[in-house]
Amino acid sequence: MTHSELVKKARLWLESKSRCRFAFEELPGLGKPFTTGESPDVIGFGQGFSIVLEIKTSKQDFKKDAEKPFREKPETGVGNYRLFVCAEGLIPKEELPKGWGLIEVTKRGALKLVHGELGSCQNSRKRKTPFWFESNLEAERGLLFTAMSRVYYSGLLGVINAWNSNTYSFMVNQGNAELNSAGLAYQLGTVPEKTAKPRTQRRRKKK
């Protein structure tokens, strides 16, 4: 499995297994003087927390990762939770940086959390988990700026601006899997603000 294939697989896994409402693949970070320029393979955002997944396909790549400036100074990096994703046995747990988790890819291609956790802001601060990082909020804002720029240049910013309480209620009722299609349909004017139950027509009896 290539690096790009693993990145996509890890993003989908993160969206389904964690409390992140959405996740992004390889968002380019803003460089100096704005932020550190960190561009995580996968980053997901939930309410009050973030999760970073770094994909490693070789031991050499894993060792080289430790030389990055935001690894040497963890407080300048992004992600309240940080985990590596690799093939089974590639990275021993004892070689993980302090606070980092590990997700292994099985021989069948499934992803499995073997070290660390995928929690949230609230329970982590209460339990003072060793896997919680105070992330660089400025750098995370830079990543979100990049994401929103893509929305803007795709011409889909109207989907967000068109939202109101009725739209949100409609989308929640549709389920997370249909949020994007429902939002686009609303922008095009094909989704009613309030969903009504279809009326059944009664046949009139012949006299």
Q: Which of globular, elongated, flat, extended, rod-shaped describes the shape? A: globular
The run of helices and strands is HEEEHHEEEHHHHH
Terminal CA distance reads: 72 Å
Do you know the CATH topology of the largest domain? Trna Endonuclease, Chain: A, domain 1
What oligomerization state is this entry in? single chain
Total tally of structural domains: 2
Note the total helix count: 8
Average pLDDT figure? 81
The percentage helix is: 25-40%
Name the poorly predicted regions: 176-198
Note down, in words, how this protein is organized.
The protein has helices at residues 3-17, 59-65, 69-72, 121-127, 137-153, 157-161, 165-174, 179-187; strands at residues 22-25, 42-46, 49-55, 81-87, 101-105, 111-115. With 207 residues, the chain is an alpha/beta fold. The chain has two domains: 3-136, Trna Endonuclease, Chain: A, domain 1 (3-Layer(aba) Sandwich), CATH 3.40.1350; 144-187, no CATH class. It has a six-stranded mixed beta sheet, with helices on one face. The longest helix has 17 residues, at 137-153. The chain is globular and about 65 Å long.
Features:
207 residues, alpha/beta, Trna Endonuclease, Chain: A, domain 1, 2 domains, 6-stranded mixed β-sheet, 8 helices, 36% helix, globular
Write the layout of secondary structure elements.
Layout: H1 3-17, E1 22-25, E2 42-46, E3 49-55, H2 59-65, H3 69-72, E4 81-87, E5 101-105, E6 111-115, H4 121-127, H5 137-153, H6 157-161, H7 165-174, H8 179-187
Parallel strand pairs: 3-4, 4-5
Antiparallel strand pairs: 1-2, 2-3, 5-6
Helix pairs in contact: 7-8
